[in-house]
Design brief:
elongated, six-stranded mixed beta sheet, 3 domains, Purple Acid Phosphatase, chain A, domain 2, 11 helices, alpha/beta
């Protein structure tokens, strides 16, 4: 009985255009521009070295129509390498490389196979006992559910479906192309669904339904490890589907909590620690990091005194840590605020509560609280130091009184009326 491995990749987006990097003179533009090609080359190297049985590419090989022929020639050359090693490259078109989108075409060298776009097709390997069923997109805006048109599973064979799709409309950042449901895929009777379109890896078992994610992150919104899925078949049964990482640029969003930082030096010690960990997680790849400084910290005044200087110092720390070839800081955002001692903030208010004459109070707790706040001059001075979005400041400007404060005011005033205080 057949035992082998195959690779499932999707969303290569070869030569995907850069987004907003040209305006940054320090951006490693050439390195990022090459990343999609290098990631696919890494996949081909792995496939040849480990002798996988075939490679499945579930759509969006390109990001759209080519700028020039070099994009197509690169793919053809890599598929040729697979073919010379006896490894078929099986592919479908997605929304970015649909038949109506790509106007220039190069024939992929045998034994590569491109599935048709007008109806599902099937690729068979009698030696492996495998049937792969798939259909590409004829047009970019494929809104039809293609699953019902797929052929029934072939008895006695390992059946694999290839589809570029959105399952159950659960991915808000992706358009709903060729939509289907998880239940429809399960009911088709296939052993494995090789899916594409969703760039975040997802998988389900029994049967195996897998989005491998895209092979290389292309911008700050595509963070984390990127690559493909290695599927192991033992005695004609799929026993595992494991992620492999082929990206050469690793995007990360580092949210550095500075709450514990007592001063500016302590804040930058935390920033260096976060950069050090992210660099280690990138495992030798170029780390492209977006950094957000967050939390209520005593270092707030020092860091916010000159935000531009803070951003440049973060970039300088990254360079000192690893050099421009290892870390590039794409953006630095400041989301820090002044720390607030709730007890100290509320003490003037509570003092006013004790001094109030019950006869002066409105019947509703919210009105009582507003009266107290109006009288708590010391509290208003403290509130001037708060970030504009702080809940206590919002409470005054919007007339919204937190339930906890209403209850506390009500309890204190009831006690005063009862003569308990």
């Amino acid at each position: 009985m057949a035992s082998f491995q195959f690779l499932h990749c999707a969303d290569l987006h070869i030569d995907s255009p850069l987004r907003g990097l040209e305006s940054d003179p320090d951006a490693p533009v050439d390195r990022i521009r090459r990343a999609t090609r290098e990631a696919f080359t890494n996949l081909v190297d792995f496939a040849i070295e480990h002798g996988v049985a075939f490679v499945l590419a579930a759509g969006d090989l390109y990001d759209g129509d080519w700028q020039d022929w070099r994009t197509g020639r690169f793919l053809v050359d890599q598929v040729r390498r697979l073919g010379e090693a006896g490894i078929p490259f099986l592919t479908i078109a997605g929304n970015h490389d649909a038949d109506s989108v790509i106007t220039r075409r190069l024939t992929l060298p045998a034994p590569a196979f491109t599935f048709p776009s007008r109806a599902p097709g099937t690729w068979r390997s009698e030696a492996l006992g495998v049937c792969v069923h798939g259909q590409g997109f004829a047009t970019r805006a494929m809104m039809d559910n293609l699953v019902p048109g797929y052929p029934p599973p072939v008895p006695g064979m390992l059946n694999i479906g290839m589809l570029h799709t959105d399952i159950d409309g659960s991915y808000g950042d992706h358009a709903r192309y060729a939509p289907c449901t998880l239940e429809q895929l399960r009911n088709r009777g296939y052993d494995y669904w090789a899916l594409g379109h969703i760039h975040t890896p997802q998988r389900w078992e029994t049967p195996w339904i897998v989005f491998p994610g895209n092979i290389q992150g292309r911008h700050a919104g595509e963070t984390g490890a990127k690559g493909a899925t290695l599927v192991t078949v033992r005695d004609s049964t799929i026993v595992n589907a494991a992620p492999l990482y082929f990206d050469t640029v690793r995007w990360a969003h580092l949210i550095v909590d500075l709450t514990a930082a007592g001063d500016e030096d302590a804040a930058f010690a935390l920033i260096r620690a976060a950069l050090t960990q992210a660099r280690a997680d990138a495992e030798g790849r170029l780390l492209a990091a977006r950094v957000t400084l967050a939390g209520a910290t005593p270092a707030h005044a020092a860091l916010n005194r000159d935000p531009g200087n803070t951003r440049e110092r973060v970039r300088a720390e990254a360079l000192a840590l690893a050099g421009a070839d290892a870390i590039w800081i794409e953006k630095v955002s400041l989301d820090i605020r002044v720390p607030v001692d709730a007890g100290a903030m509320l003490s003037p208010l509570l003092a006013e509560i004790d001094r109030l004459d019950p006869a002066e109070l409105a019947p509703e707790a919210a009105e009582w609280c507003r009266t107290m706040l109006d009288r708590a001059g010391g509290l208003r001075e403290d509130l001037k130091l708060l970030d504009k979005d702080h809940p206590l400041l919002q409470m005054i400007t919007d007339g919204v009184i937190p339930k906890a404060m209403e209850d506390q005011a009500r309890n204190l005033l009831r006690a005063r009326l009862a003569g308990d205080t």
